[in-house]
Specification:
elongated, two-stranded antiparallel ribbon
């Protein structure tokens, strides 16, 4: 697996060198630019896994960070000379991965970078899992809906969750009318209580 790429955008040469040294020490690929205008070209060319944005104390820089986040969907780690209370909520929105004061030691930077990368990985894994789940659900619903046989799905308490069009047509229900009803409505009334007990006994050990 390739080492994560981290793009450092910082006009302050001293802090940029510190960040580059720490990032390289973690075994990650570090790319640095001094101006935000250069960053756009580097982002398109290098596809970084994380952007560390220095000098993030001004509304103007935060606006740039918001653009990077919205346009490229990249995780951001912000470093600020000072923290204006008015900007706190914007910091949290733009860079949930982290916010550091300018004067921090190497271990603090290492921890912030590792946490930011881990959060980004977790979010990516969650997005991937959700996409796979959505695809699986769509495939199931497609098969369920077009089945030539009637099919009804209920939960353990006997509440109908799904009924396909064939089942609705066979049983005389309109689209969606069966959902939310007890499965016993499909059983002759004289047998409903017996069916309820049988279902309750079956659920623990099908």
């Amino acid at each position: 697996m390739a080492a994560p790429k981290i793009l450092v955008i910082d006009p302050n040469e001293d802090s940029a060198r510190q960040l580059m040294r720490v990032i390289a020490g973690l075994g990650y690929q570090a790319i640095t630019v001094g101006e935000v205008s250069e960053a756009l070209t580097n982002i398109l060319g290098s596809c970084p896994d994380l952007v560390v944005l220095g000098d993030s104390s001004t509304p103007e820089t935060l606006t740039i960070a918001e653009t990077l986040c919205r346009k490229f969907k990249l995780p951001l780690l912000l470093i600020a000379n000072s923290i204006d209370r008015v900007l706190i909520n914007r910091y949290k929105t733009v860079a949930p991965e982290g916010l550091l004061p300018r004067l921090v030691n190497d271990p603090a930077i290492e921890l912030a970078v590792e946490l930011a990368l881990q959060r980004a990985r977790n979010e990516q894994e969650q997005e991937t899992a959700m996409a796979v789940l959505a695809e699986s659900e769509a495939r199931f619903r497609g098969i369920f809906t077009t089945a030539v046989d009637g099919a009804v799905l209920s939960d353990q308490s006997g509440v109908i969750l799904l009924a396909n069009p064939r089942a609705e047509a066979l049983l005389g229900y309109g689209p969606g009318e069966m959902v939310g009803q007890r499965i016993e409505v499909l059983v002759p009334e004289r047998l409903r209580e017996t069916h309820r007990h049988l279902r309750a006994d079956y659920a623990p050990s099908p």
